[in-house]
Specification:
single chain; 289 residues; alpha/beta; Rossmann fold; seven-stranded mixed sheet; 36% helix; globular
């Protein structure tokens, strides 16, 4: 393939791009791939999760602007491009019964109408591969589930000249993947490696929850990207309101991660090209066409 490869990663909030597939993106950027993050919402209703910043009146009053600046820093660290789709964060409803979602939020938009914004961006950027979330959102946040819904519609519609004619010249992406970096095999491998070295593991409760759910996703694609874990972590730390640099995200030494599990994982959901599973490249089947 002679033209530059292009990858689009569709995410719900600023910080999702740095916690899901960030090392993969940094790897592909280093290889000359053009990578674009499409961020559906501004993260306006996200809680300040870093205890060091909780109670800061400026941050609380300007959370939208603060999160946009964090996104800009993370984007620069990863070396990717980034565009906002402009939807409003739905927040994560909590309680029993769950409260209604706020009026006008992303998760309450008409799916076909909301997908039009993503179709326009796809037709402008012309990605060969798209990554997004599975039907459960990776976890059941309403914005993550909505991200899945509009991604599926947009993947099918972007190449169809009959749909969204106002959104530009048609372009058909060739493959669509679900991010599956938080998977049981990886978690179990890291958990056992930590215990074998006499270290505490943050994954015990995670594994118990997986046992209770009894549900496994199909991992089809393992992208080797251990050399870029440090860049991933720097990008994640840039989202200072969301990430405590002394928290659980960073308890597993990088050298142990690279030794035990040096890949990020994906589930191939749609492919218009022939490929053999398992893969080690999101562009498998595309590079040689």
């Amino acid at each position: 393939m002679t033209e530059q490869l292009r990858l689009m990663a569709v995410h719900a909030h600023p910080d999702d791009e740095s916690s899901k597939g960030a090392a993969t993106m940094a790897k592909y950027v280093s290889e000359g791939v053009d990578v674009l993050v499409a961020t559906c919402t501004g993260g306006e209703r996200g809680s300040i999760l870093n205890p060091k910043l909780q109670g800061d009146p400026y941050i609380e009053a300007n959370i939208h602007e603060v999160r946009a600046k964090e996104m800009a820093e993370a984007r620069d660290i990863l070396g990717v491009k980034q565009e906002w789709l402009g939807f409003v964060d739905s927040g994560l409803p909590e309680g029993d019964p769950l409260p209604p979602l706020p009026e006008g939020c992303f998760a309450l938009q008409d799916v076909d109408e909301a997908a039009g914004r993503l179709v326009k961006l796809i037709r402008e950027f012309r990605p060969h591969v798209i990554t997004t979330y599975d039907e459960n959102g990776g976890y059941p946040h309403p914005d993550h589930i909505m991200t899945h819904k509009i991604s599926m519609v947009a993947f099918e519609a972007a190449g169809d000249p009959e749909r969204y004619p106002e959104a530009g010249e048609p372009w058909q992406p060739q493959k669509l993947y679900y991010n599956q970096g938080f998977n049981r095999p990886r978690t179990l491998a890291l958990h056992e490696a930590l215990l074998a070295r006499g270290l505490d593991s943050p994954y015990g409760e995670w594994l118990e929850r997986w046992e209770q759910m009894g549900r496994e996703r199909t991992l089809t694609t393992y992208v080797p990207c251990g050399d870029f874990f440090e860049i991933r972590d720097k990008a994640l730390i840039a989202h200072a309101t969301q990430i405590d640099p002394d928290g659980g995200w960073f308890r597993v030494p990088l050298d142990l991660q690279r030794e035990v599990w040096p890949t990020e994982e994906y589930e191939l959901a749609k492919s218009l090209v022939a490929t053999s599973l398992p893969e080690d490249d999101l562009f498998a089947g595309i590079r040689n066409n």
